[in-house]
Amino acid sequence: MSSVSIQHNVKDLITPFLAGKFYSKIGVLTDENTERFCYPLVKDGLPGHELIVIPAGEEHKNLATCQQVWEKLTELHFDRHSLVLIVGGGVLGDLGGFCAATYKRGVDFVLMPTTLLAQVDASVGGKLGIDFQNFKNHIGVFCNPVITLISPDFLKTLPERELRSGFAEVIKHCLISDKSIWRTIKEKTLANQDWNALIEHSVAFKKRVVENDPKESGLRKILNFGHTVGHAVESYFLDSGNRIFFMARQLP
Q1: Which tens digit of pLDDT belongs to each residue from 58-87?
Q2: pLDDT digits over 14-28, tens only?
C-alpha cells in the first residue's frame, strides 16, 4: 500500500515529493474539466512537464481513450524512468493509473484526486481499470501509485452536486466504521462539514481495510456496501443507447 499525503496547499504536496528524485520526463494527465479548474493550482509547483488532456466523463473510460494516452506517451518519448501525475476524479484516476501501470510494463504514477469521492475512496486501494463492452471496470489491474497527494483545496472547484456525491461515500465509511463521527456529521449541513477531518478519517479507514485485504478476497468486500447495486445500474446505462444517464450526472 502506497503512502498518502494530505495538505491544503497543493505546492506543499508536490514539491516535497519531487525533492531528490530524478525522472526523465514528467507528464500531467488531466481531463477537459480538471485542465480548466485544477491544473492551474498544480502547474506552478512542477518542474518542466508535458500536459496530456483527455475527454471528461465515464463514457470515455475505455480502451479508445487508453490508446490516446499510450500514443501520446509514445510520441513524447516517455521511457520507464518517467512519471505520470494524474490530476482528476475517480474516472481519470482509474484510467490514467491503468495506462501508467501498463505502459512499458509500468511507469511510476502519482494520483492527485480532485473530487471528494476520489479523495476518500477511488484514489486509495490500488484498483485501476476501464469499462469494456458495457461492463463497468471490466478490464484492470491492482497496482498502487508511488503516492497519493490529497488537497482539500480542490473541493472548492466542485459544484454542490459533485460534493454531495462524495459525501455519500464519507457517510458510508462512517456507517461501517465509526458511529460517533456519523452522529457528528448528521447534525451539520454540507457546507459546515470539516472536510479535513473527514478525508483523513475515510483515508485511514480504507487504508486499514486494504492493507489487510489488498485484492478483495474477504474483508475488503465491506467497502462494496452500496457499490454492487450501483455498479450494476451504471453498467446498464453504459449501453450506447443510454448516454443520457451520464450526461445528466455531469450537469451542474
Answers
A1: 999 999 999 999 999 999 999 999 999 999
A2: 999 999 899 999 999
At residue 242 the predicted structure's pLDDT band, cuts being 50, 70 and 90, is low
Cα(25)–Cα(118) distance, rounded to whole angstroms?
26
Distance CA 68, CA 71 (A): 5
* pLDDT over 90 percentage in the chain: 69
One-letter amino acid for residue 20 of the chain? G
Cα separation, 227 vs 221, in Å, equals 10
Which conformational region is residue 104 in: left (phi greater than 0), alpha (psi within -120 to 50 degrees), or beta?
A: left
- For each of the domains in the chain, give its residue range(s) and CATH number, in order of start: 1-247 (3.40.50.1970)
Q: Report the C-alpha dihedral over residues 3, 181, 231, 145, rounded to 10 degrees.
A: -10
3-state secondary structure of 32: helix
Nearest to 130 by CA among 67, 208, 205: 67
Alpha carbon distance 162, 251 (integer Å): 10
β-bridge mates for residue 135, sequence order: 132
